[in-house]
Each structure stands twice: as C-alpha cells, then as structure tokens.
Write a structure and sequence with these properties.
The structure is a single chain. This protein is of the alpha+beta class. 30% of the residues lie in helices and 32% in strands. It has five helices and eight strands. It has a five-stranded antiparallel beta sheet. The protein is elongated and about 60 Å long.
Length: 184
C-alpha cells in the first residue's frame, strides 16, 4: 500500500473510529490473489467487545462506500482488535497492559520478561518474576531502553482480584443472619 493511500485512509477513517470511542491502532491493505483486504485494528482503554466491533465495521463500510477511497475494485473489510500477544508501541498500549506479563527486547541487546505495575511519562515500574523459588524483584525501565515489547499470554496465572473477591464473599451473611458456610 502506498504511503499516500495509507495516509488518506487513516485520515478518512480515524475520526469515525474515534467517534465510536475507539483508537485506530493499525490499518493495512493486502492483496490476496485478485482480491484486496483492508484490515483495520481498533482498541480502547476498556477494550472492544463484539458489538462495538460490529458497529464500527458497519460505520467504516458505509464511509468507504460513500467516499470510494478503496477505488472501484472489490475488497473485503476486516475489523478486529490487536489480540492477546499485542506489540506495545504507544504509551497508551503500556497503560492498557498494566498488570500483564510482557517480554521486552532491550536496546542494550538483552531480553527481560516482567509484569507492568505502573506507567508514567518516563517509563515503567516492573515486577521481575523470581527464578527457582526466589522472590520477585522491582525494576524501573525507561521507554528509551526498550527496543520492542510484546504482551505474553499467561495460562496458569491466578487472578489475584478474583481470589480476593472470593475470599471476601466466603463468610458473608445472608438475610437470615447465617453465613454461606453455615448453610453448606
């Protein structure tokens, strides 16, 4: 896709995506055989559920048809979210990845896997998991030290928020002044 077409499409679609409460993260036109595919990736601080994706997809389709920005040939519009293992390239991406495990490629050539605890304008506060029974350690990482960053999928992590909520509700009283444990 030529830079001018990319810029023109972004200029056309970004305000529409923003009006839906979403950020336009990526935009790409790919050729698949004789057909073209316009891929649009959107996200927000609160995420984007299927209904929001469908709404923005309909709005983008109407705008593209009205403007003829894709030309006369057929194309397929695909609208989605960044996915679980997204690359972190913007400040807002790091904010959205707070409490997530991230693999960092550092400018100095090393690699670091750590959980993002907090984000500010200068960098990140991280928790580096302990190895072989050692405790996790805190680390500060400036944005200037990061070459690449990608969120990691965690299958075995226990959600500490849900554990705390479960612990708090185990002994709650019901209307008849008995606790859930007493009823069981």
């Amino acid at each position: 896709m030529s830079p001018t077409q990319s810029e023109r499409l972004r200029e056309l679609l970004e305000p529409l995506v923003a009006s839906q409460g979403l950020d336009l993260e990526e935009l790409a036109v790919d050729s698949v055989g004789r057909r073209r595919v316009l891929r649009v990736v959107v996200d927000s601080d609160t995420g984007a559920d299927l209904d929001r994706i469908a709404d923005v997809s309909r709005a983008l389709s109407a705008k593209l048809d009205e403007s003829n920005a894709m030309g006369e040939g057929e194309y397929t519009l695909e609208v989605g979210t960044p996915g679980a293992e997204r690359s972190l390239t913007e400040h807002r991406h790091y904010v959205r990845a707070t409490d997530r495990l991230v693999r960092f490629q550092l400018h100095e050539g090393g690699e670091l896997v750590a959980r993002i605890l907090a984000v500010d304008e200068d960098g990140l506060d991280l928790e580096v998991p302990g190895v072989k029974g050692r405790k996790a350690t805190a680390r500060r990482l400036s944005f200037g030290d990061i070459d690449k960053a990608r969120v990691q999928v965690e299958f075995n992590r226990k959600d500490t928020k849900n554990i705390k909520n479960t612990e708090n509700t185990e002994n709650t009283e019901n209307d008849d002044n008995t606790t859930e444990e007493e009823e069981a």
